[in-house]
Amino acid sequence: MPSITGIETIVPENVYRQDLVSNFVQQLFGGSSLNVERLLPIFANTGIDKRHFCMPVEWYGKPHSLSEKNTLYTQHAIRLASEAVRKLCQQAQITPQDIDHLFFVSTTGLATPSIDAHLVNVLHLRPSVRRSPLWGLGCAGGVAGLARAADWLKAYPRKRAVVIALELCSLTFIRNDFSKSNFVATSLFGDGAAAALLAGDDCKPAGNRALRLDASHAITWRDTLEVMGWEVNDEGLKVLFSKDIPTIVRDCAKPSILQFLATCELTLADISEFLSHPGGAKVIAAYAQALNLPPQKASYMWKILREYGNMSSASVLFVLREYLTSSDYKSESRVLSTTLGPGFSTEMILGQCQ
Length: 354
Prior knowledge:
Mean pLDDT: 92
Number of strands: 13
Oligomer: single chain
Structural class: alpha+beta
């Protein structure tokens, strides 16, 4: 079975502590119809210490068009993604020319040609490299990208694939949107990128750690389109998400996870590490409650949320890297990663440490 043989991450240089962002947002939303004082405790309750943004915080205090924001998305996406891939290749002792298939996952900007096409030129990839841009999966995109890459490598066991998950969530902020959803988003989302190297069975990794991907699973629940997504308008991508997401996690996640594990002839007791997308404090708590997780099994999710906020599709790769490079890594341990995204949907992968 294909394996993840390495993951590298990168974030923009602009980093801000949560209390500073809270004060800034209080100024931005002051005078609006929202009860800002009642909502401000959200910032303290997120479990987030700091976040990275691709622009200085003052930039977000002025209105910007969709065109301007998307130009910045393309520029920063190319820079961050190329640097992540360079770090990954150095760590794996390969060159960019050794990449056979590039999967690019993102939902926070638009580009045609897609960002992966730009990377062919920037990184001098082989002209014959396969490219698969995946757009619109939101927070579910990181696990979805890993699963699709693993599927391809099953057919081509001598090949290598790289999955890039890149999100510039801060660029979707709309200055004149005084909705509660936009306010909550300012307390939660950050920017970041990650690149994962996957190898087929006949392609030997350079390192001594790898996560074999044994199975994947996906579900899109009917009649849940309004739970999460974008409303595209002249000012950009207006965030939409339901306050019921933690409830959906409690009610729907556990049956879906148990069903997936049952098809693999496993139970929750067989899972050593739960390394899922840290969508927010309430989401992690809902997972822990639904699955009866001891605190240590969610520790890596909490750590990434605390240090980076919610980076949408990229977050789960940060979580996986944190574990794979830690002293907790143990050969034969089974790992489960799940994510939730627009649709409303879930993506899951089951892996085993090698």
